[in-house]
Amino acid sequence: MTASSWTRKVFRLRGLPSSISSPKDAARLLGETLGLPPDNITVYSLAKTSNQWGPMSKMATVQFKDIPPTLDSETSITEWRIPIRESPHNEVLILDTQFEGMTVLNDVETANHRAEDELPRSVPGVRTVLYGYDSQLIDSNSFQSIGDIAARLIWNLKSGGWNLPSSRPIIFLAHSLGGIVLKDAIVQMANSTDKSVKDIIRNLLGAIMFRVPSLGMEQSYLMAMVEGQANETLVQDLSRNSNYYVRQLDLAFNGLSIVHSVKILWAYVTRESPTIVKRPDGDWNKKGPSAVLVNPESATCHCSRTDKSLTIPINKDHSNMVKFFP
């Protein structure tokens, strides 16, 4: 994927029949369903879903050269259900832009399959799965806590069979709030009395934490976005001035024996990141003054001064530190 293609919207495509065996077949079926030529569609990954309990199907990640009018919506619509033409079982394809839950990027059991995503192609034999959750700040009516998000991650891991004896070792790559969610999930799993949950954590091999605010972050600009909203408490929990949530979580996390038996690396940025400001028209954009939002001490969970061998400095800002270009 070229650097310029990152500016184009990426869709997740679900509900593909299990008979679809190649990105070309997926593009053809989606093109027929939307009435588009297949060469208007690029399929970057194709894999079986991770849910062990639902019907067998496949999912893909796609981009359009020109987004169809039916998908280029100015409203808040983020998911479209499109009936497959002449389907004997009334099957539908589901396109979305939220990527909530598990998105599998590649299958490892098919020797000749290589997804076009950079990580599966660079590390063959590794199944790569994205996990997405609702992190909307502006105009949000969600009062979920970080612990709630972590609990749903655990549920998704169980649904995907990550607790089964056949499950392979797990390595997490977590960015920013995602790392706090992961730490909370690990603490929950370690303290669970449910054997099927503990079996997930036994498969943990390690993690790379990208700019995770383990000791809090500067988030006054975020507070301006959520003041008075249901999600205000979630943002407050990330404050570097908070003496409760992030620091208590850090103590609980570092007190787990599993944390000291696996390999965890901590990456931090060495460039200031732009902040978000409100425009005169009421919208928000990243045009505010640059600032150090998460300092190296917080991003490395103390390791910047105790064990530098576990730290990775990245000369990028917050958003660009996890974007990899060929």
Notes on the protein architecture:
- The structure is a single chain.
- This protein has two domains: 3-96, Alpha-Beta Plaits (2-Layer Sandwich), CATH 3.30.70; 133-322, Rossmann fold, CATH 3.40.50.
- It has ten helices and 13 strands.
- The strands form four sheets. It has a five-stranded antiparallel β-sheet, covered by helices on one side.
- With 326 residues, the protein is an alpha/beta fold.
- Helix 3 packs across helix 4.
- The chain is 25% helix and 21% strand.
- The protein has helices at 23-34, 118-122, 146-159, 177-191, 195-201, 220-226, 232-236, 245-254, 296-299, 303-306, and strands spanning 11-16, 41-48, 58-64, 79-83, 92-96, 101-104, 129-132, 170-175, 204-210, 263-269, 277-278, 284-285, 311-314.
- The termini are close together.
- The longest helix has 15 residues, at 177-191.
Spatial arrangement of strands, main beta sheet:
2-3-1-5-4
The H-and-E topology, N to C, reads as EHEEEEEHEHEHHEHHHEEEHHE
Largest sheet: 5 strands, antiparallel
Termini separation: 7 Å
CATH architecture of the largest domain, by name, is 3-Layer(aba) Sandwich
Quick check: average pLDDT?
85
